[in-house]
Amino acid sequence: MRKLGFAAALLAMPVATAAAPAPAPETLPWLSVSAEGRYLRADGKPFFWLGDTGWLMLSRLNREETEHYLAKRAAQGFNVIQVMVLHSPEMTSRYGAPALDGGDPAHPHVTPGRDPARPGEYDFWDHLDWAVDRAAAHGLYLALVPSWGSLASSGKLNPASAEVYGRFLAERYGDKSNIVWLNGGDTLGNENTETWQALGRTIKAADPRHLMTFHPFGRTDSSWTFHRAPWLDFNMFQSGHRTYDQEDPGARSEDNWRFVTEDLALSPPKPTIDGEPSYENIPHGLHDTTQPRWGAADARRYAWWAVFAGAMGHSYGENSVMQMYVPGRDKPAYGAELRWEEALDAPAAGQMRHLKRLMLSRPYFERVPDQSLILDNGVRYDRVLATRGRDYMMAYSYTGRPFRVRLGAIEGRRVRAAWYSPRTGETQAIGNFDNRGERRFVPPGTPAPGNDWVLLLDDSTTGRTP
């Protein structure tokens, strides 16, 4: 998504429902890449990235609103919030405190001696300090974009200023375990490449423990430019907001699973994730507000397709929430209509947890994508994505059309089968049968986009319940 064309607001706005403050912040586990190079872990345990794009949290929300937002997303099962630090050279906090002196990234505006406990009497960086700690208190990691791509395009962020700014960030936040760095910021990796290399290299040298990736422009991937960069720990692509019909013929288009497949074929192995798919309630193609809006079913499809193709997790987004939109206060981008607090309850936001829950219910690090399991696959919306471990397999059908499965790829003489609903998280038992040959499975309901189901097969001797 390109730079949002609106100014930061300075006036405090009440939240619809005040959230009780979370307990004092605790240190969250440091994240690292798993041994096989495909997933993330925290204290050796699987970490399934379930992210929300709260890009303008720092500039549009006051402290009470920030608490409400963080508490809500944590309750919905999210564990990562993607936030931009510098949206523009004139970036300010909700309280009007500037991030930079003279709009220069080499000169962060720091005011020593202010009391961070007194609203209105702290600077921008005090506010970010507070937000990092409050996120930790809610069990959330902040994936911070140091600078949106527009600052590099304008020349404000360049190799020289990037080194100064990168050292500032690394030294200030190097001991905060709940941070991930998203270098770049909705920009092409082959533009201003030296600037992004300088920023990534500088932060990583002074802050080696935090993971880092690159947030690219729509329909592009960090791996295209930076896969072998020493500072890039995992790949991120932006599958974007266009439909099949709005793309050039032959493009990856809505098939976000293609990015995952391509990334996992690279060497050395690195995890990958769709960091910005089509947002719920945003127009097809972004800019024409007369176009239909992406809905909950579309958001689910992007998530399940990417993860079953082998992604380490998924990032969700909602149009009003990503810009923290308040009618009458803000100029809406991309036809936003709902107030952000109301949009927090968009249907797909409550459904993402079902993906995370299912992925963590089976042995995680052994999971691999395996399209050979589907014997009669379709194209576009009829594509069925399959993944398996040693003694389980799963197949996701967005339209709920019948499909044939090759059995015998997992352990066990017999398998237990069930349907799992990405909409509700509920299961429907199918039965037990021999784990050999092939079998046709017919999902519940009438085949149609959004009648999505997951086929679960488990070795019947595991005692694992659907």
TrEMBL record:
Leader peptide range in chain numbering: 1-18
Alphabetical UniProt keywords: Signal
Recorded superkingdom: Bacteria
Residue span, Putative collagen-binding domain: 368-458
Domain Apiosidase-like catalytic: 35-366
Xref: InterPro entries: Apiosidase-like_cat_dom, Collagen-bd_put, GH
Name of this protein: Collagenase-like protein with putative collagen-binding domain
Organism of this sequence: Hephaestia caeni
Organism placement in taxonomy: Bacteria, Pseudomonadati, Pseudomonadota, Alphaproteobacteria, Sphingomonadales
